[in-house]
Write a structure and sequence with these properties.
Blueprint lengths: L1 E4 L5 H9 L3 E4 L9 H10 L3 E4 L3 H8 L7 E4 L6 H14 L1 H4 L3 E5 L2 E5 L1
Length: 115
């Protein structure tokens, strides 16, 4: 799968996804300081699922009706690498087809999909 990792996604998550064979563009590697709207545009243009911890993307998509090609918003109380990786493992194994057009909100104990 193709992902765009926002600058708030850790390097360990980016490297793990790459090790699993996924195509991951990381904002820190060439697009630093890109405005959130432009991050969303880039993800859509390159057909990448956006990975982020930034709640602002919900505002852009649901209130401003900006288009997207899939967003995964992580809402963890504890930002441990192991939590991200275990949730991503579940998402990729069980829900990969849903991710491309859904706004997915993930917490430690819940996964919600919105169209």
């Amino acid at each position: 799968m193709k992902f765009l990792a926002d600058e708030n996604i850790s390097k360990s998550v980016v490297l793990w996804l790459r090790e699993k064979g996924h195509d991951v563009l990381w904002i820190i590697e060439g697009h630093r300081q890109l405005l959130d709207e432009k991050v969303l545009e880039l993800a859509l243009k390159e057909k990448r699922i956006l990975l982020t911890n930034d709640n602002d993307f919900g505002e852009f998509i649901f209130r401003q009706r900006l288009k997207h090609g899939g967003v995964i918003l992580f809402r963890f109380r504890c930002e441990k690498k192991e939590i991200y990786l275990s949730v991503l493992e579940i998402l990729l194994k069980d829900f990969s087809r849903k991710l491309e057009q859904s706004f997915t909100v993930v917490s430690e104990n819940q996964i919600r999909f919105r169209g």
